[in-house]
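Quick question, first post here. What does this chain look like in 3D?
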Amino acid sequence: MAEPEAWQPLSPHLQIYSPLINMVMSIIHRVTGAGLYLGTILFAWWLIALAGGPETYGIFREFAGSFVGRLVLFVFTFALVHHLLGGLRHFLWDSGRGFELKTIDLMSWATIIGSVCVTLLVWGVGYSVR
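> Answer (accepted):
Ran it through. Tokens below.
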């Protein structure tokens, strides 16, 4: 009887593939999508607090003004902007354009850099208006 072979993966995995920017962007797009789901709960809490009156809104405002609250709102802003820019990238692909490898890499870098810049811009404007 033949000896069973050692376990081998059926297809190449992380041992062979090195992460490319478009692979990383796909993962980040999925993570930000999940983050937006959780952020929607935060948005619903804000609306409920508004409808609940000054005391209820004060509880939300206290959380949103804390360090943790601002960090959560900052990450939510990044997720929103990143998901928007990633969606625009996918919209361009849906039109049949932008499939050259150089263009894919360029758009991936533009999405992440644009997400960071727009998030910082939104928060900078928010603090300057405040």
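The chain has four helices and no strands.
The first helix runs from residue 21 to 52.
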